[in-house]
Amino acid sequence: MHRTLTIALAATAVVAAAVPAVSMAKAPEVSAATTPAVAAKTSPSTLKWGACPKDVVTPLPLECSTLDVPLDYRKPNGRQIEIAISRLASKEPTQRRGILLTNPGGPGVKGLIYPAQLVESGLPQEVQNAYDVIGVDPRGVGHSTPLTCDTTLEQQALGSFATYAHSPSDVVTEAKYAKSLAKQCASSKTGDILPYITTPNTARDLDRVRAALGEKKASYLGASYGSYLGAVYTTLFPKTTDRVVIDSVINPDGYDVKQMRMFARGLDDRFPDFQKYVVAHPELGLGKTPQQVKAKFFELAKELRAKPVEGMTETGFRALTFAGMYSDGVMPYLAGTWQKLDKNLPLNLKPAEDSDNIMSIRLTVSCNNPGWPEKLREYQRTALVDRIKRPMLGGSTGNIGPCAFWPKHHKELVKITDRGPSNVMLVQFQRDPGTPLAGARQMRAALGQRAKMVTDPGGGHGVYPGTPNTCSKNAVTTFLLTGERPAKDLACAANPSK
User: Fold this and answer.
1) Which pLDDT band holds residue 228 (cuts at 50, 70, 90)?
2) Which of 196, 220, 236, 436 could form a disulfide with 37 if both were Cys (CB 3.0 to 4.6 A apart)?
3) Rounded to 5, what percent of the chain is helix, strand, coil?
4) pLDDT tens, 343-388?
């Protein structure tokens, strides 16, 4: 549950880091990497391990270190930046088989604490024995050389989702804010490193971590955005990646406009679970039928559009509802907030913590990904189409963001293909708000013979290891321990009733 809640709250990264903007100039240069990268040379580890930073709090024996990597891999001997890493070492040398690199998603979520969070949410002891579990604050994040867009608390409160567009003029209005935010990121005090904070470079960093640990190969476990990072990592380094698990899977083109628009589909996929929760709790007074619950959603959104409450806007309400879909454990809080809004009770919202780094990274990694339209009218079209097709969130996720106006520089796309060893497992909830099943199926198709996919019958975001479903959890554990996968893609059934 701890990890599920962590990923659920990381939805505030989704909800707290808009994506993009719009420029009418020449399109940025894009290169497609289709061949493996040169792996870093493995040598005996020289890393010095010690205490972790004070904000990395866990009772587990987690130790930390740092590693210098090239800012620009085209100039490997040029400027270096620092990557912070952590290790939860196996206590069973005779059972240890290697290292398990991890990533919790985001982009922008800190990874140093992630090995401990995996253990707290049920990482089997056999897996802990088999691997040194490695956490990484990716480039630009947390205790690695940090990136900032110098965002204010007010900007952070607006979040990642654009204002819900009810008309073409709403898109025009949003474009002004999006353009200014893109410019602000480019001109920040770390604007010089902004072009290099990309998924392919983060994948190259992972191979440097592997080499620095003295390992010829590394296994990998990544969730949400970490699924795309893992796919890029094993595509660039097929010879040095061992067993690769990608959980809660993004489409094979990464964080582009398609993925942004897919959030609205994810909310539609998952919302029926919340409807069932509310109907099962009539004391909430939010609806006795699923239809009444959905009607209440639109009623509250309409009221907040007319008059925000304690800073809660219509878009903020839609985004909060989306974030509440990430975990069953968050639904009672979400329902309670709905109830307060419905009964005009004080929300007592906590003051927002500074989330500049996570918002800055999410913007930068997303906007450095190719695949963002630049024409205003294209966003007017998608906002209209999605508002009609997926009215709960589509008017927001179809709207314009900073990526349309992002600085012009070289952009790299790693094409995910079926070339490479058959050593990848996808694991996916059937009803995932952040990374819908439809996108996972696209990634599965792109990986072809390299992969097998396990579908968990549940809903939420982040399957392993916290899922209560024994079929999907055991499939991943078996793969990590033995390398064995189902002979074909597996759709798990619900656990037998007790």
Assistant:
1) very high
2) 236
3) 45, 15, 40
4) 999 998 876 688 999 999 999 999 999 999 999 999 999 999 999 9
Contacting residues for 146 by C-beta, under 8 A, at least 6 apart: 140, 190, 357
Return the structure tokens found at 487: 């002979």
Six token digits for residue 174: 């949003």
Report, in angstroms and rounded to the nearest whole number, the Rg of the chain calculated over CA atoms: 22
Distance CA(56)–CA(52), nearest Å, equals: 6
| Cα distances (Å, whole numbers) of residue 146 to 32, 159, 193, 367 | 27, 20, 9, 17
pTM here is 0.93
Residue 267 near residue 393 (C-beta atoms within 8 A): yes
Nearest to 13 by CA among 353, 258, 275: 353
For the stretch 424-455, pLDDT in tens is 999 999 999 999 999 999 999 999 999 999 99
Whether 322 contacts 267, CB under 8 Å: yes
Of residues 122, 7, 118, 123, the one with CA closest to residue 460: 7
Give per-residue burial for 367-389: e unless 16+ CB within 10 Å, then b: bbbbbbbbebebbbebbbebbee
- Left, alpha or beta for 8 (phi > 0: left; psi -120 to 50: alpha)? alpha
